[in-house]
Task: structure prediction
Amino acid sequence: MTVTDSQKMAYVAAQAADARVNLQFETEDGMTLNMGPQHPATHGTLRIVAQLDGEQVVRCEPIPGYMHRGYEKLCEVRTYPQVTTLINRIDWLGSFANEVPFILAAEKLMDVEAPPRAQVIRTILFELSRLGNISLFLGDLGIQLGGITIGFYAFRDREFVLNQIEAATGGRFHPNFDRIGGLKDDLPKGWIAETHRAMDRMRRLCDEFEELVLGNEIFQARTRGIGVIPADIATSYGMSGANLRATGVDWDLRRDACPPGLSYDLADWKVWTHPDGDSYARTWVRLQEVRESTHIVDQLLDSIPAGPIMAKVPRIIKVPEGEAWVATENPLGEMGYYVVSKGDLVPFRVKIRSASFNNISVVPWVTRGVFVPDVITIMASLYFILGDIDR
Amino acid sequence: MPKVPGMVKGLGVTFRTMVETLKPSGGPATVQYPHEKEEPSPRARGVIALHEENCTACMLCSRECPDWCIYIEAHKTLAPPRRAGGKPRQVNQLDRFAIDYSLCMYCGICVEVCPFEALFWSPEYEFSEVSIADLLHEKERLGEWMETVPDFEPYEAGSEAKGKKVPR
Amino acid sequence: MSELIFAIELAYWQQTLIKVLVAAVLIPTTALILGIVFLFKMMSWMQSRMGPQEAGPRGLLQLAADGLKFLQKEDIIPDRADRFVFKAAPVVVLASTFLTYVILPAGPDLIIENLPTGIFFAMAVSSLSVVGVLMAGWSSSNKYALMGGLRAGGQLIAYELPLILAVMGVVIQAGSLSMQDIVWAQADGSMFGFGGLGLPFVITQIVAFFIFMVAIQAELTQPPFDMPVAESEVVGGFHVEYTGFRFLFFFLGEFATAFAFAAIAATLFLGGWWVPGIDPNSALANIVGPIALFVKIMVVAFLIFWFRFTYPRFREDQLQRFAWKYLIPLALANITITGILVVVL
Result:
């Protein structure tokens, strides 16, 4: 294997960038702490460079890019059905939710709409992936703060949700179930009753989380008033999802701008906000979201209409020329795809807007002057998935 | 009634779980894996099985595979005519059908695009190997997995999808 | 029979040899028992798991297998580490643990050395481990280890005070620093004129017991006070660079110290080896004593580990504030009230 000049240049540039960061943070007094890329608290390979004064953070900067996989470019050489399986891996905990906005954008370009039955099932699976994602957050937050027991509880009860996703789609983590114009398959028999039971388990997990972690005085001392993000800062950094709702901004794409193809209007539900904007508020909002999601799923399960699950689409999918932007409220926040088609088998350009990148870009602002343990609290409560940052 | 402090409540949760785990009616949430196994759901995408008689070497799966991990080799032969006195038919004889499971993403596109119902998902999951090169499985191995393919489940009420059958 | 055994007069060196051998076998065993019963089994049950199942009957030998595994591992010393201090640190930590066992009474005659200032000695040697921890953190030439070591130093010093002040209440009530005398004081005491059950000091010194439990939780660097070893913050703290048998030393030290502190708590507050209904002067007490002490230790250890598996951890400054603002004044008030009551009554 020969190394080309451009590869050499890229290597040199990477080294230089690395050295620059180290140099910027190295000072006469104080200490530079490299958290990551391999650190237990970065769930993935996020590098956090912090300039410390004792235990106090003077400056802190997250450096993403250690897991960049070039999805936007990869999408340009994959046909539309193949893209679906690829973008499963962006936010790997809520995979199905990644597929939906892309499929909706393609549907928009092709001007097809999924049948009502497919839309409802799609919404249910979307919410199930949200449950699978955020329930892990509840456990992970406990682990980051030292209470490992809730982590096991979260994994235990999340299994019921994953089992339901697997029973319907065949894949626990990467369903690859959404198709342009509908779904790959219909639900198996007995799935609805089983899912109702899984929702009961999730609600029980929420109660346990409230008793074990949220109500604990130590937990409150660790999270209340830590990492306060005011609403104007949050909006100017482009934060979205539960992190934004925890600052008091009443904003939810599921309610405000639900794209056609998802049927949230069939259920009666509420958007939770919290005025504080601190780590506790973010946890609280997510906990309420899990509860609300179980109620959405319960209501939608009882209102699945009869009918086909696939609209009429050609076997070989060619998307007509045009551009479409569709964003949905994913577990981590706003996730959108800007799809440009030149009427080919493959998309001409795909721009992926994922929530975590914007959510963690506020970290340098919010970690000024906090202690090292608070950095962990803030990172854990901002809740990012590394695949969602680096794509 | 005074409010119970959260720290005491938390102790209650862990103690309750311990009693629940030790009770004969409760038991742990985990499964002692090599001794007892969990039953994956029939749709679970464990491994791809090949029903060789149905394969016509049309290469659709190989082309649609997102990471091109299916290898097909075939040659044309003459098969005996369907009706007596007819001309012999030209068919594709499958020489090699291999899936490299170290590349496979388990997306299921090949199973979906197969027009002749030759590929099926099996929930079988115990096929790990010591070396990554040993994960390239030829058609004989893929055919063995055909026995582990379960029947398709019936659909939930209100479905209009047609039930499918697994060739045996 | 038992009178005969205990009547045998041994030379001083013979006694010492036996005591050393018993201690050398006993201390790792206690660490193993705590590790298996609580860390592996109880923690698993509380998290709805079964814990280790494969090594030995019901997985009970898992920790022994882990210990053997540690012995096989490569002994890695970082390039820029201060080699001598790095090697010495685990030994210092373990030595402080071993010394604590000297004054633990398991029966009227079963004690390694009945020092007149027993509990004072225990407190003194147990704080030696701070030195070992600081040595480990400093010599590892690792930023995380340094932070963990300094955190441990600050924390252990801060919690040494409430620990000693909590013990003071018991000492005032018993009127002696000797562990044996404290047990005797509880055996001879009486509750409201009824002497059958004696007077375990947990009843009169409930505040001190609470402070003691909180303080040993911090001394053992267990959640909610495990910042020095916090996985998610400082990646294991002062022992992040240790491998193999040096890590095993820290591990043994941690659990043997937990056992020792549980034994001190059981002796000071629950009556130690003494069992109601058995004449403490009889030889039977020498046989029942260790069993009674073991049961009491297990009760205390259950509490320690129950807290450990339930609570999230504090932040370093919150921990200091908690110690200096709440625990120490509370302990001082407890001493004052105890002193007044002892004089008045």
